[in-house]
């Protein structure tokens, strides 16, 4: 939980962040197509991808979403850099050994593992065991939720095996090592297998966090309009737009990463998530223009 003092300090920094963004934006707007291509390529880097929509939020003066997005990027920075390091080793180290066979299985992602919040939920380091247990209990993937299970059942996708990996679980120690198991699925078609993989790469808390960033827009829409009818209409439209935005970007990153990882391992995962984020954001904007 972010303390009030921490949030206040972050809020105090917002005007400076906004001014720095405007200064950078003036130079970016003058960039040619080559520079734009480089920026698109940088989307493959998780830290860049996480703040790719920060500019839009700053332009719209969406203070809370901007701070929330920046906070998520900061929290995930350690784990994101480990992913980049893994991809770099795959590219440069001839003796590189993957954590598991990416072509056959997919390991479930964690919202907390490797992040700045890791130590707060790790039973070995946390100061609040009860809270840590509750958070870990909810640190599951979409595939493990009730709706996720129903989707996989509808697609007739079955989890036929679980394979050991070299990825350590939260709570693992040198004296008592614990490792994540990757899941092998059986499906009648490629889409089913890909969906299962994508859902295992999407965490329940991660989706909730992204949805929470849309709440300020929803509250703003509730107060727009001269009558209750207009306010209700604006609220309904914004709810649809926010839902589409979260679903499109989440699906784009999940499916893109799943495809890339299956064929190219860590490198493919990064490239796929970057491309998926761009496609998801583009699709979201196009659909929202119609609403």
Structure description:
With 291 residues, the chain is mainly α. The chain has a domain at 107-203. It has 12 helices and 2 strands. The protein has helices at 4-28, 33-42, 46-50, 54-59, 63-92, 118-121, 129-137, 146-154, 190-200, 204-212, 215-222, 228-290, and strands spanning 158-168, 179-186. The chain has a two-stranded antiparallel ribbon. α5 runs parallel beside α12. The protein is globular. It starts with a helix and ends with a helix.
Fraction of helical residues? 55-70%
* β-sheet strand percentage: 5-15%
Shape: globular
Order of helical and strand elements: HHHHHHHHEEHHHH
Q: Give the uncertain stretches in residue-range form.
A: 2-11
- Strand ordering within the main sheet: 1-2
Largest sheet: 2 strands, antiparallel
Radius of gyration (Å): 20 Å
Number of helical segments with 4 or more residues: 12
Could you say which structural class the secondary elements and strand pairing correspond to?
Answer: mainly alpha
Mean pLDDT: 86
Total number of strands: 2
Q: What gap, in angstroms, lies between the N and C termini?
A: 35 Å
């Amino acid at each position: 939980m972010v303390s009030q003092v921490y949030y206040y300090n972050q809020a105090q920094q917002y005007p400076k962040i906004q001014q720095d963004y405007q200064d950078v934006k003036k130079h970016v707007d003058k960039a040619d197509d080559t520079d734009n291509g480089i920026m698109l390529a940088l989307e493959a880097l998780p830290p860049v991808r996480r703040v790719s929509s920060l500019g839009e939020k700053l332009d719209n003066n969406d203070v809370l979403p901007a701070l929330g997005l920046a906070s998520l990027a900061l929290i995930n920075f350690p784990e994101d850099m480990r992913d980049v390091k893994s991809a770099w080793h795959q590219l440069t180290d001839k003796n590189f050994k993957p954590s598991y066979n990416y072509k056959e299985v997919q390991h479930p992602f964690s919202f907390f593992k490797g992040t700045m919040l890791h130590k707060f939920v790790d039973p070995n380091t946390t100061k609040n065991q009860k809270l840590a247990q509750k958070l870990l209990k909810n640190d599951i993937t979409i595939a493990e939720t009730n709706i996720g299970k129903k989707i996989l059942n509808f697609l007739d996708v079955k989890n036929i095996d679980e394979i050991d990996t070299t990825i350590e679980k939260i709570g693992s120690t040198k004296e008592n090592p614990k490792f994540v198991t990757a899941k092998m699925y059986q499906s009648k078609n490629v889409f089913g297998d890909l969906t299962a993989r994508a859902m295992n790469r999407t965490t329940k808390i991660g989706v909730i966090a992204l949805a929470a960033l849309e709440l300020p827009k929803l509250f703003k829409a509730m107060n727009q309009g001269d009558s209750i009818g207009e306010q209700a209409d604006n609220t309904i439209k914004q709810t649809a737009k926010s839902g589409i935005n979260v679903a499109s970007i989440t699906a784009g990153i999940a499916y893109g990463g799943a495809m890339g990882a299956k064929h190219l391992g860590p490198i493919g995962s990064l490239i796929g998530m970057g491309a998926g984020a761009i496609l998801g954001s583009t699709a979201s904007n196009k659909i929202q223009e119609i609403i």
